[in-house]
Amino acid sequence: MAGAAHEASADLGALRAEVEANLRKASRMIDELNRRWPVAAPALEGDAAAVALRGVANPLARLVAAGVLVRRGATNRAAIEVAVDTASDQGWRRPLLAWLTLQRTLAEQAGDTAAADRLRRRIELVAGQR
After folding, report:
1. Domains of the chain: which residue ranges?
2. pLDDT tens digits for 24-47?
3. From 42's CA, which of 10, 61, 74, 75 has a CA 20 to 30 Å away?
4. Cβ distance 41 to 73 under 8 Å?
5. What is the DSSP string of 78-117?
């Protein structure tokens, strides 16, 4: 039994290292996109960011683009809603939790306690805490 636990720990460690390496690679790719993509943040004011995201056909690419917009500070509640809907429609629980958490944070910062409470309950439901 101890051998199986040790092997599982080693497998988990290898998986964790692989995930961390992939996250670093994704971060470098996003940085490269930010350098090469000549779209300035002010160019995507209002609903333009949400409209641009809806125009991305591939759901994974749509979420990556939403992440790039967030890093650039060129997003708003409507664009984040597109990302939430995309993750939800695909059944991607972890990305959905990340986008819902961002949505809740923005609602709290805006003083919208009703929305923040609704989002907190949705996060708990998605996370399986209810």
Report:
1. 1-36, 41-127
2. 777 777 777 666 655 544 455 567
3. 61
4. yes
5. HHHHHHHHHHHHHT-HHHHHHHHHHHHHHHHHTT-HHHHH
Interacting residues of 40 by C-beta distance below 8 A, sequence separation 6+: none
Q: What is the DSSP letter of 44?
A: G
C-alpha angle with apex 120: 97 to 82, nearest 5 degrees? 50
**pTM of the predicted structure, to 2 decimals:** 0.66
What is the residue type of 13?
Answer: G
CA distance linking residue 70 with residue 26, whole number of Å:
15
52 CA to centre of own chain:
17
Length in residues, the chain: 130
Structure-block tokens of residue 37: 């993509």
